[in-house]
Design brief:
alpha/beta, 16 helices, 9 strands, nine-stranded mixed sheet, 3 domains, Glycerol-3-phosphate (1)-acyltransferase
Length: about 450
């Protein structure tokens, strides 16, 4: 089922690299949570209304985790050079020309509208990043009108009854670090036919009403902190929720939205708190996290003493050799990726995108060359090493995560401040739960 629509993709590089990118995401993220990926159906005219935290990591996540091939709308200024345009088109990207990028006139975007309509007629999937910018703020920005205009223009010209807008939310803990967590959730479809009568009477009202529904839908599947001044407090509350959650390290890719629902409910509670309660919560939370920093501890280590038990120590001892081998094998690619990223990246939103690209492309090409040499010259050890290298590289990251969890838990268990810090943590949870509604919304 995964490749049901693959043959309809126009991008050559898209279908060549798509299988390898699954492994890349295993290394980039310690955990990937997916919810309702089947909500974007193959062979349907779908406009994805997505948030946009990073430059390329979330667009590529749409491509590798959704069933149909996805065509991603991308800012037009990076298509100016012919080689760049060709390369981007081979990964199913197409340009939109925005006034903020210095473009004037509608003639260029008329072509974009026609492109989107052609994809809808072929019953394909187009992703439009409706906030109009990429950002790592845990907040849904105002929805731009481009998607609504494309949807109504397509319906006016061709009247596809099943034309639908599907909200998709992508969420990260940080968004600019490796070994992050990715949570991707697909919302319920919004059918344009339900707004068509209103559009005929009042187009502006129909566009605004559709945008309002998209905004509401995205806030249900994306992190959203109403007041930017609460950003730090929100991060602290999310940290507590994650470390209370009984999750598992494996499998890396897991179907489920339970953790996100808990996180989102806490953010909703935070958004509703009266100012005096919020100030009290800020004081308690700041005191606790300052105490952790001064003690050199982490909330995860404090909350999970079982991560420091003898079974984990035995696992770390028995698997140290393959982890060390994986570290050596992956070092050239990792060194290249980190060096290039440090030199070229100026904005946080591009960090993981450049890391991913500068590791995947050389890794795939270099691996293919070494595999050819091993097979051609009958060097069995080289052939075996190239085949095992991706798994060994991933295991090195996994081993490092386990080692970090073990040492954090051992340090926390032995620290004299542990009881008082746990009391502080409990006081925060009590303060928050006093205003928290019972139950978790589906």
């Amino acid at each position: 089922m995964k490749y049901v629509n693959l043959h309809k993709s126009d991008g050559i590089i898209y279908w060549i690299f798509e299988p390898f990118l699954h492994l890349t995401y295993w290394c980039l993220f310690r955990k990937v949570y997916l919810h309702n990926m089947g909500g974007v159906l193959p062979n349907k005219p779908v406009l994805i209304a997505a948030n946009h935290p990073t430059a390329f990591v979330d667009p590529i996540a749409l491509c590798i985790y959704l069933k149909p091939p996805v065509y991603n709308m991308t800012r037009g200024d990076i298509f100016e050079k012919p080689w760049a345009r060709w390369l981007l088109e081979q990964v199913n990207m197409f340009p939109v020309f925005r006034k903020r990028d210095g473009y004037t006139g509608r003639e260029r975007n008329d072509g974009v509208f026609e492109f989107c309509q052609s994809k809808m007629l072929k019953k394909q999937t187009v992703a439009i990043y409706v906030e109009g910018e990429h950002h790592l703020d845990k907040q849904v920005k105002p929805i731009q009108k481009g998607l609504a205009r494309i949807a109504f223009e397509t319906y006016k010209n061709h009247a596809p009854e099943d034309l639908q807008v599907v909200p998709v939310g992508t969420n990260y803990i940080w968004g600019d670090r490796t070994r992050d967590e990715l949570k991707m959730l697909v919302g319920e479809p919004i059918f344009i036919r339900d707004y068509w009568e209103l559009y005929q009477e009042n187009p502006a009202m129909a566009v605004n009403k559709l945008n309002a529904r998209i905004d509401k839908a995205l806030k249900e599947i994306c992190y959203h902190v109403e007041d930017p001044a609460d950003a730090e407090l929100a991060e602290q509350m999310l940290t507590l929720v994650r470390n209370d959650f009984s999750g598992h390290l494996l499998p890396v890719v897991e179907v489920g939205n339970q953790l996100f629902l808990l996180e989102n409910e806490v953010l909703k509670t935070l958004n509703r708190l009266p100012e005096n309660t919020k100030n009290d919560l800020k004081h308690k939370s700041t005191t606790y996290f300052d105490g952790l920093r001064q003690a050199g501890l982490t909330d995860e280590g404090l909350q999970h003493p079982a991560h420091g038990n003898g079974a984990w120590l035995l696992f770390l001892i028995l698997t140290a050799l393959p982890a060390a081998l994986g570290h050596v094998v992956a070092w050239p690619v990792r060194f290249l990726a980190r060096t290039l990223t440090a030199k070229v990246v100026k904005k946080r939103e591009f960090v993981t995108s450049v890391l991913m690209g500068s590791a995947t492309v050389p890794g795939v090409i270099g691996g293919a060359v070494l595999l050819f040499l091993g097979l051609f010259f009958h060097i069995s050890w080289l052939t075996a090493l190239v085949i095992l290298a991706p798994l060994l590289g991933w295991f090195t990251f996994f081993y490092r995560d386990c080692l970090w969890r073990y040492t954090a838990a051992k340090k926390a268990m032995a620290h004299p401040e542990r009881p008082s810090l746990l009391n502080m943590r409990a006081a925060i949870k009590t303060c928050l739960s006093e205003k928290e509604p019972t139950g978790v919304a589906d």
